[in-house]
Amino acid sequence: MVRRKKTEASLVNKTSLRVRFSEVDSMQIVWHGEYVRYFEDGREAFGREFAGLGYMDIYASGYTAPIVELHLQYRKPLKVNDTAVVETRYIATEAAKVCFEYTIRSATDGEVVAEGSSTQVFLDSRGELQLLAPEFYRKWKERWEVK
């Protein structure tokens, strides 16, 4: 397994969630795939707090940003009605990509239930990979004072 070294985050968002019945499996714990959705919830909340990097902002700028890499490590299961906090950390890079690290903690005791990371790249309206950071992304980084 490839493990990314934890990097100091430049921007951080925290968002809360409550586990719904539809998110648990026959073992009465959150189905493993839901944690990827929780990461997405974190990215969406991040995009709302740090305006300009939300999915619709990227799309309105003429780009898409598909996930090309995702890592997830489970630590402790969540159950129905548990509350958790998703911490989403933007990891600055000079490359034409968006990197996040995530920690999901139990809101009750603060224990880590899952950790992970994701990498997104930019595609233009023709679906072509952008090797240089798009102008909107460079301006976003300037606005939020990140590399």
Automatic annotation (TrEMBL):
UniProt-recorded Gene Ontology molecular function terms: fatty acyl-CoA hydrolase activity
Membrane-spanning residues: none
Keywords: Hydrolase
InterPro entries attached to this UniProt entry: 4-hydroxybenzoyl-CoA_TE (IPR050563), HotDog_dom_sf (IPR029069), YbgC/YbaW (IPR006684)
Domain of life assignment: Bacteria
UniProt keyword RNA-binding, yes or no: no
Family designation: Belongs to the 4-hydroxybenzoyl-CoA thioesterase family.
Protein name, as recorded: 4-hydroxybenzoyl-CoA thioesterase
Species of provenance: Alistipes onderdonkii
Organism lineage string: Bacteria, Pseudomonadati, Bacteroidota, Bacteroidia, Bacteroidales
